[in-house]
């Protein structure tokens, strides 16, 4: 019989996004962050039919943030610097909170810059919140 304390998983709607110098309200969604190591297959002459699998190029998927449109222009202004030809790289983090609002898990991303911005879609027959979508490309991700 197990006697350990039960540990429930964290809820995916309790998170924060921090980006150097940017204060933005709550995000509806934060997706896509992760890493991938390309697999390079290699077969040596005398080892038929064995194929070796070697690590290749390391890449990181883009972070996509969705948030309700407000008067805040900090994220868009960051993106505008790229549109104006200057890449302003920043570091940031995605932070998992527990039920009490305490920081529990942190993914730090480095050398990030805004690579895409999508303005809200509008529909006169709807009643949804206007949603901005913002994509961040980065060079490194570490789980802390």
Q: What are the SSEs and their pairings?
A:
Layout: E1 15-19, E2 29-31, E3 35-42, E4 52-60, E5 63-68, H1 74-83, E6 90-97, E7 103-118, E8 131-137, E9 140-143
Antiparallel strand pairs: 1-6, 2-5, 3-4, 5-8, 6-7, 7-8, 7-9
Structural account:
It contains 1 helix and 9 strands. A hairpin with a 5-residue loop joins β6 (90-97) and β7. The protein has one helix spanning 74-83, and strands at 15-19, 29-31, 35-42, 52-60, 63-68, 90-97, 103-118, 131-137, 140-143. The mean pLDDT is 91. It has 144 residues and is mainly beta. Strands 1, 2, 5, 6, 7, 8 and 9 form a 7-stranded antiparallel β-sheet that branches. The chain has a two-stranded antiparallel ribbon with strand order 3-4.
Provide the structure class.
Answer: mainly beta
Strand content bin: over 45%
The shape is extended
Runs in which pLDDT lies below 50 for 5 or more consecutive residues are none
Largest sheet: 7 strands, antiparallel
| Assembly annotation | single chain
N- to C-terminal distance: 33 Å
Radius of gyration: 20 Å
Q: Give the ordered list of helices and strands.
A: EEEEEHEEEE
Task: Provide a count of the helices.
Answer: 1
